[in-house]
Input
Amino acid sequence: MQPLNTPLLEITDLVVRVEGKTVLNGISLTLKAGEVHAIMGRNGSGKTTLSHTLMGHPKYEVISGSIKLKGEDIKGLSPDERARRRLFLGFQYPVAIPGVTVANFLRSSLRAVRKDEVPPSEFRKLIRKEITTLGIPETFMTRFLNDGFSGGEKKRLETLQMRLLQPSVAVLDETDSGLDIDALRTVADSVNSLRAEDRAILLITHYQRMLDYVQPDHIHVLLDGRIVKSAGPELAKTLEEKGYDWLDNLKTTPAAVRG
Output
């Protein structure tokens, strides 16, 4: 187990280009064990670019800077290699894969991360424990992956996957998108259940309402590819009241190291 306050994810002066356009322009951020950080910002500010870059999507070209996971620079690693090192990305819009059952998907994911076969009896025991905790019916396991799932069901599945894989760092990209209030509460409860002294969570969101249920330790505002403001959970209320316009004059200020 990582000691509390150990840096788990360190992003330093990260510059990222997408299709010839610079989208992230000097991001620096440190997530320590036991912490939950929230990233907020307008559409197009670079939030999803940050999440996909962290996971190694080939579309996102790192021009300069570093990304360290538990002290190891992972810039040159493929997405599956990052996942094996316990980095997890929860997608804004999880894709459907007809023909692949939830059970087969989860078992394959667990086997890939653990680098060995998972005995059926052990897998069944793990699944039974987690679906009971999350209130998921067993019939969920025989359905095709995200095929015909509601927004809330897709998020429950991602939470189930996270609980099985036990990531050191979980990056959740707008996990509240498209959820009604009941589904939002369910997802928030699931995220809160993942908080642990040896894990860090990076929660990317548009809305203050998510942060009513998942209280972060730190909030960072991303505008035009820069972190322009960092503060405690009280910042969410200020953003709800004032929006982002009052921060526009900070967009050209170099971002400081956070965390």
